[in-house]
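Researcher: Here's a chain I'd like modeled. Treat it as a single chain, no partners, no ligands.
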Amino acid sequence: MTQHRLVSLRLPDNVIDALDRAARMQGRSPADVVRALLEAALSAAPLPERMRGGSLALVLAALGAARGWLDLQTRLRMAGFVLRLSEAGVLTLNSWPANRALMPIEALGTSLPALCIRFRAPFPGAVPARATSTRPTGKVA
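Model: Modeled as a single isolated chain. Structure tokens:
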């Protein structure tokens, strides 16, 4: 399970207003938008030291050879990695067993939708978004 820490940021009013507008347009919370922006910005960083050389080749080989989600996760774990789905819906490659996020899967040339289509199944453990509904109380007004 991913651990979270509370962080405070001092931002100018115009940035907060833009964040609120972006969140409303996307139907997400401002915190989700900030998390997604930070993940995208950090994914643009150079490959982590661990991903240089042979490790990157092992991950790409696992992605190419896997026949399903379980097969992919098994192959990745043998190489010291694992896939995790963030709360923002971003599929990331994490170190294993430390479970530290390294990069979004898009940085490796694929995507969550592409893998779902290829494996003909959603990512295991992914909870589909549900519209919130009100339950009838049984009382008649």
